[in-house]
Write a structure and sequence with these properties.
Elements: H1 15-30, H2 36-41, E1 47-54, E2 58-59, H3 63-73, E3 78-81, E4 88-89, E5 94-101, H4 102-132, E6 139-141, H5 151-160, E7 174-176, H6 178-184, H7 187-197, E8 204-208, H8 211-219, E9 224-228, H9 232-242, E10 247-251, H10 259-263, E11 269-271, H11 274-277, E12 284-289
Parallel strand pairs: 6-11, 7-8, 8-9, 9-10, 10-11
Antiparallel strand pairs: 1-5, 1-12, 2-4, 3-5
Helix pairs in contact: 1-3, 1-4, 3-4, 4-5, 6-7, 8-9
Amino acid sequence: MSAKSPAVRIEPLSPLLIEPAVRAALLEDLGRAGDITTEACVPPDATAHGVIAAREAGRIAGLDFALTAFRLLDPKIKVTVRAPDGADVEPGETIALIDGPARPILSAERVALNFLGHLSGVATATAKLVALVAGTKAHVVCTRKTTPGLRAFEKYAVRCGGGRNHRFGLDDAILIKDNHIVAAGGIKSAIEAARNHAGHTVHLEVEVDTLALLDEALTLGAHSILLDNMTPDQLREAVKRTAGAAILEASGNVTAQTITAIAATGVDLISSGAITHSAKNFDLGLDFKPV
């Protein structure tokens, strides 16, 4: 990834979402007695100049979480961003400069880097898949396979990586999966019941794993159809049969090795749980420099 690539422009998350999560993480880390190591070793009036730098190539996400961690502990800490969320960085590249009282910088360091490293890892994993489908009509989307309590943040990181978001929860779209079909007594019963239950603004998607079920879902007027674990040949046939009548989402066995062939079939979306549930933490660090 080139450090000179323009950052993906993304609307920031609301501080109303970020601050409670960061505050809870700081409370977890500082516990009942505070940072006893820093309080024992560092004079109260000591100042520091720190550099957050990348140790590998990747895509940045989560800087507002890091900034919030430092500022919650001391508003006098100054943070200068060099690589914003959505930017690509190379090993050794400066992400942000941290200046101010040394004690609160040290106490906030781990929480700040935990958020920044995790979310940048999600963004980096997403960006790699997005690059592999460039030139096709397919968009990479995430799933609900997220870390409990961090879904909005991980989905934000997916957007920083150039991906798109699937539904955020069970309450914002209908996705009829195989177990729903079994429990409802068949795909026809499930779709008809869902259509009668939902308001006119609610999107209806159904999961199928055979072309015969695809044909039935198309006849019943599903808005989107999730093609589960189909081969590229099956996906191409599904695209042909659908002919634009519904949005087609390919899912299952999506990896860096398979996604290019999946995208070439002409599907609209390719969903990956791995970009959130299995993303490798992005390697970065905060080092103090002489003031």
